[in-house]
Amino acid sequence: MPETAIELVGVNKWYGTFHVLKDINLTVGTGQKVVICGPSGSGKSTVVRCINRLEEHQKGQILVDGVELTNDAASVNRIRSEVGMVFQQFNLFPHLTVLDNLTLGPIKARGMTKKEAEERARHYLERVHIPDQAEKRPGQLSGGQQQRVAIARSLCMEPKVLLFDEPTSALDPEMISEVLDVMVDLANEGMTMVVVTHEMGFARKVADNMIFMDAGEIVEHGPPEEFFGAPRSERCQKFLSQILQH
Amino acid sequence: MKKILTFTLPLLILSGCSSSSIWGWYVIDPRTNTGWINIKFLISGMGDTILISVIAATISIILGLLVAMPGLSNRWPIRMINRVYVEFVRSIPLLPMLFWVFYGLPIIFQSMGLNVPIDPFWGAIITLAISDSAFTAEIYRAGIQSIPKGQSEAAQTIGLTYSQSMRYVILPQAIRRILPPLANQFIYIVKMSAFASVIGMQELTRRANELVVTEYRPLEIYTLLILEYLVLVLIISAGVRWLERRMGADER
Ligand SMILES: Nc1ncnc2c1ncn2[C@@H]1O[C@H](COP(=O)(O)OP(=O)(O)OP(=O)(O)O)[C@@H](O)[C@H]1O
Ligand SMILES: [Mg+2]
Fold it and tell me: What whole-number distance in Å separates Cα of residue A158 and Cα of residue B37?
């Protein structure tokens, strides 16, 4: 077992009286890839958003790199510098060029010089296969290109962990693979990744651990061979048969 | 009675325009010596009306942002600061507030041992700025809240602090929704600046009043006064529309 990157211990969360996460236990080792799937509303996004403190949990512990997440500003800052996030809707800054999207964090949050930050940005734009779009605005790019810019923006902060919340769900079918290819590359380079997705081909290829969530619980988890080969719970079987049909 | 008025009033005005017995345009006839002097006297109030409005609007734009900020907090006691200010200020009629600032505020200053005289110029500016700031605060709040939540979340995940995210991500995007209504608000200030006449500020309205007292020609003088405001407001509206077009063009 490699060193632990993320650990969730008995995490519970409520929205008012609605119990959205129920006793979530999850360990992600450094360099591991965890894929989370499950029906809509099962709490997948909420888990991921709790890991980088976009949402607060009310009970249990979340540790990133051994440090517990609390309300303390220093701990939140630490998480933000180590955990990157890629959103379903890209969330690029529409008023800035691609290059400025990428350098904003390094310059303002890390105090890098403009020159250093731009060098780094161009390096990562190349990594996501769009080196020649740096001067454009996000609105001028295709969805697939926008999502790759968003991945590059996260990489520019050189995080230890990358979270993905349905990164291909807002994309036209023909653009899904260009984003997944970039993610597979990242996985092969040893990035620690937590990915919410229904792309089961991708999951089989990269996942070390599959998680199936339903109604705020982790119903089933395990390595992909086991998970896809012989799901134990009925709910998971049903979900997989629905999703693998097409 | 009302019916009779609505029928006869337009007729009265129409006939009045042609019959010289009702209208005495000579008071502001630029071809006569006194007429020209009167016109110059009336129009020279323009400078103070514009100056008061511009300074009051500038203060209101800054004050409004400061008031809007607590309104965006996710903690309700902080949000309350915004709500109380906006609801309170918004409910005070301009004229009583003007009296309070001009006649009342100096007494408070005096009791604190400060000698801060408030002249009509600054009395009008303070009143207009505070009164307007409740509205600009709401404009800021609506503009900032119209930016999707994903933007500030993305800013957080790349490590920006709250104020950095405001400055580099949210406000630059919100500004194109904020500027047009803010400019519109300027029209409101220009019109409300007429109240400054009541505390002795020699702006457009005050000058018209003074001339009416000496010339006994309220119809012509107040007609010109209305036209003066009309011209001012039309110029500002043209500016607002130009701004809206520019903002819209940027939006893609
Ligand atoms: N801010 C909120 N306030 C109240 N309820 C919320 C809030 N955010 C999410 N929920 C509810 O929590 C549940 C879990 O939401 P979550 O977004 O984590 O689901 P998900 O598994 O990501 O679903 P999807 O596949 O649709 O993205 C849903 O029932 C949702 O309606
Ligand atoms: Mg979701």
Answer: 74
Q: What would the pLDDT profile of B90-111 be if each residue is shown by its tens digit?
A: 999 999 999 999 999 999 999 9
What is the number of the ligand 1 atom nearest to the C-alpha of A216? Answer: 14
B18 vs B172: CA distance, rounded Å: 55
Neighbours of A75 (CB within 10 A): 15
Q: Who contacts A125 (Cβ-Cβ below 8 Å, separation ≥6)?
A: A98, A102, A131, A133, A134, A149, A152
CA-CA distance, B118 to B105, in Å (whole number)? Answer: 8
C-alpha dist (Å) from residue B241 to A63, B4, B179, B211, B236? 53, 40, 11, 35, 9
> What ipTM does the predicted assembly reach?
0.92
Q: Is residue A2 left, alpha or beta, with left meaning phi > 0 and alpha meaning psi from -120 to 50?
A: beta
To the nearest whole Å, the CA of B65 is away from the closest chain A CA by 21
In angstroms, the CA B145 to CA A189 distance is 40
Give SS3 for A96: coil
CA A20–ligand 1 middle distance (angstroms): 8
Which residues on chain A are in Cβ contact (under 8 Å) with B148? Answer: 89, 91
Give the Cα separation of B181 and B115 in Å (integer). 38
Token pair listed for B106: 């100096």
In Å, how far are A11, B154, B222 from A91, measured between CA atoms?
A: 27, 6, 55
Residues A65-112: tens digit of each pLDDT: 888 888 888 888 888 889 999 999 999 999 999 999 999 999 999 999
Residue recorded with tokens 């799901």: A231
